[in-house]
Amino acid sequence: MVFPMVSDDNILIEFCQAILSNLALSCVLISVTAIAIAWFIRDSFIVEDLDKKHIFITGCDSGFGNLVARQLDRKGVHVIAACFTEKGGLDLKAAASPRLKTVLLNVTDSLSIERAVEFTRTEVGERGLWGLINNAGRASPMGPTEWMQLEDFVKILDVNLIGLIEVTLKFLPLLKKAQGRVVNVASILGRIALNGGGYCISKYGVEAFSDSLRRDMHHFGVKVSIIEPGFFKTNVTRLDIIEADLERLWNRLPEEVRHSYGPTFFDEYLKVQDFTMGLLCSADISKVSNCMQHALTALHPRTRYSPGWDAKLMWIPMSYLPAFIVDFFMAVLLPVPKDYKKIYANQIGVESP
Ligand SMILES: NC(=O)c1ccc[n+]([C@@H]2O[C@H](COP(=O)([O-])OP(=O)(O)OC[C@H]3O[C@@H](n4cnc5c(N)ncnc54)[C@H](OP(=O)(O)O)[C@@H]3O)[C@@H](O)[C@H]2O)c1
């Protein structure tokens, strides 16, 4: 039997290699930790004189807008909260300090936007507007594309995208004056289109508009952040509203189209929706308002915020996967229309069910 020769030189070389590889690993770990600490410290710097700054927020009757208006008001910021209804404005005023002002605003009405800009111009004076949160939005109807008519798309796009663009354009001169911030509320549905209707399209549009706005306004000191929340319990995700609207769409479909989905499809679709929304929707909407607050008050706001565990761990990673994997996931999740079963059976040459 022959034993390999182990010389002192070999041991020395192995020892040096071990030290070097450990040294390299240690260097990497130390660098990563140092970068994380530096990033955390940079992230925590807050702008000065918040009590001298004005922030305009749309859609403050309920949900994220209502919460962030009260939150920023408590921080001493001059909040101008735009509400869609008079009642929404009165309720918010009653829950805030006398510093908070409300205005009525319908983002689909140009005159209403101009009136809100005029009101804000008088309030902010020479300082200009520090922050604009484009939060107003609506989601219903959402559902299979074939169930929609053109007006269903337009209704959503008018509020979520065209309204947001018009509000931003009209406030830009005041924002430039203050070298302020724009915070646009998109959604993870602006990164991955999980259902039909105008909502995902509108939020993809908000993402694109915000990216170009950020690059264009960078030279003027105006910063733009995008909020991409996962699913949260607000009016936008209220199942009774979504389901009543879905039923309206289903009932107005021509008999022949409904027949192609089969008698059980609608109920199965609602069951899947109830189950997934129940599983995903978080009641802690402060995760979203805290991101909005950070985007407006941090010295170095982030470009994108993705509040919610589902956004961070599920939807954003999934949005980077190849389309066929996402298609497969959705196909497993959603019920199958009757006609698909027939077509599939024909393809594989068996009797259709
Ligand atoms: N909840 C979620 O899971 C989720 C996830 C991602 C993104 N978002 C987005 O977050 C934003 C805020 O929604 P939310 O979840 O807080 O729901 P919400 O409570 O329904 O807030 C939306 C607000 O917008 C208002 N609004 C509707 N149409 C308007 C119009 N034409 N002009 C002005 N205001 C109008 C609503 O008023 P009324 O209540 O009187 O109709 C409401 O106050 C929306 O852009 C939504 O798309 C929500």
TrEMBL record:
SUPFAM superfamilies: NAD(P)-binding Rossmann-fold domains. PROSITE patterns: ADH_SHORT. The keyword Endoplasmic reticulum does not apply. One of its GO terms (biological process) is steroid metabolic process. Pfam families: adh_short. Keywords: Membrane, Oxidoreductase, Transmembrane, Transmembrane helix. It comes from the Eukaryota. The chain crosses the membrane at residues 20-41, 313-334. One of its GO terms (molecular function) is oxidoreductase activity. The keyword Transferase does not apply. InterPro entries: NAD(P)-bd_dom_sf, Sc_DH/Rdtase_CS, SDR_fam. PANTHER family: RETINOL DEHYDROGENASE 7 (PTHR43313:SF47), SHORT-CHAIN DEHYDROGENASE/REDUCTASE FAMILY 9C (PTHR43313). Belongs to the short-chain dehydrogenases/reductases (SDR) family. This is Retinol dehydrogenase 1. It comes from Esox lucius.
